[in-house]
Write a structure and sequence with these properties.
Helix 1 packs parallel to helix 4 and helix 2 runs antiparallel to helix 4. The strands form two sheets. A seven-stranded mixed β-sheet has the order 1-4-5-9-8-7-6, sandwiched between helices. A two-stranded antiparallel ribbon has the order 2-3. It is an alpha+beta fold. The model has no long low-confidence stretch (mean pLDDT 86). 29% of the residues are buried. It is built from eleven helices and nine strands.
Length: 345
């Protein structure tokens, strides 16, 4: 009886060791027979009661050997089948086929416009000056001839930091001009591009954050005519050689005299359209001669030096140039919108 039991176990072991399944289906059948929940090895353990006591240990070791052999064999067969399947799949790949095209990104229209403006002014000797966006009240307002009780402060609704009346998000990049004039002696010829913030209701024409480029030129004998020629050069480079400009009297607390500059409409060739409101002119920036009070506040001798300053909104230039009718599109990061500017790189 014991010999028959041992022989039966050895037959199962031999069957396991000689098994050669080739497909996933055959390996699955091997698993069910020898490793599954109802495998043929489990009943063998029950035969230990029919084995003599002096051979029970030997029988138990043999059955355990069969169980371990089945598990090891199954794992080996499984790995072989999976490796063969991966190799077959690799052979089916056409390695000479072109890869899927990568969708290239595009520069943001604000970046395109800002870089274009910076490039134009750098050609005539202006350098780029940048500084902090969280500014103190003195550099943002007082240094620009805008004391606490000045009505011009009402023109710019300001974001102040929590529990502070001194620190704020800058409302213009004029604060950069103030810092440069405090720390650098004339001659000064800079442009200050950057993001600014104002507490305004967001609409198609206005946003609580936007971008500016402001310019400053300070030296001896700088005149209004110098400013006009500089801005005319910018307009022709930006909008075309046939562009004309006009200056209209205006008011800014840090310049005197002050003006707003229009350019002939480059969309309708000054014949009249909805962009220029059928006037033939489009306003693009504010400018003026630096007020002597600003020089004195920043430590520059106003009797020796004169200068001019100008400033423009980047979003406005981009909207005009690319016929964008809603400023909010510039801040939504919609790839369908931004993808239209790939050709502008």
């Amino acid at each position: 009886m014991a010999a028959e039991i041992f022989e039966k176990v050895n037959q199962v072991l031999e069957e396991i060791e000689t098994a050669t399944p080739k497909t996933k289906e055959e390996v699955e059948q091997f698993r069910i027979r020898f490793v599954g929940s109802k495998n043929v090895i489990k009943p063998l353990f029950g035969n230990i009661k029919n084995v003599d006591n002096n051979r029970k240990k030997e029988f138990g070791q043999l059955v355990n050997k069969v169980k371990q052999a089945a598990e090891s064999k199954f794992q080996e067969l499984k790995d072989q089948v999976e490796t063969a399947a991966d190799a077959a799949e690799g052979q089916q790949l056409d390695l000479s086929a072109p890869s899927e095209p990568l969708d290239l990104g595009a520069r943001h229209p604000i970046s395109i416009t800002m870089n274009r403006i910076i490039d134009i002014f750098q050609r005539i000797g202006f350098s780029v000056a940048e500084d902090r966006e969280i500014e103190d009240d003195w550099h943002n307002f007082t240094a620009m001839n805008t004391p606490e009780d000045h009505p011009a402060r009402d023109m710019q609704d300001t974001f102040y930091l929590k529990n502070s009346t001194e620190m704020l998000l800058r409302t213009h990049t004029s604060s950069v001009q103030a810092r440069v004039m405090k720390n650098q002696k004339p001659p000064i010829r800079i442009i200050a591009p950057g993001r600014v913030y104002r507490n305004e209701t967001i609409s198609a024409r206005a946003h609580c954050q936007f971008h500016q480029v402001e310019g400053l030129y300070v030296d001896e004998n700088v005149s209004f005519a110098d400013m006009k020629q500089t801005l005319m050069y910018f307009a022709k480079e930006m909008f075309g050689a046939d562009t004309k400009i006009r200056l209209r009297p205006s008011y800014f607390p840090f310049t005197e005299p002050s003006a707003e500059m229009d350019v002939s409409c480059f969309i309708c060739n000054a014949e009249g359209c909805n962009v220029c409101k059928y006037t033939g002119w489009v306003e693009i920036l504010g400018c003026g001669m630096v007020d002597p009070a600003v020089f004195e506040t920043c430590g520059i001798d106003s009797k020796k030096y004169t200068g001019f300053a100008f400033g423009m909104g980047i979003e406005r230039q981009a909207m005009l140039r690319y016929r964008i009718n809603d400023i909010r599109l510039l801040f939504e990061n919609d790839t369908r919108f931004l993808g239209q500017f790939k050709s502008a790189l």
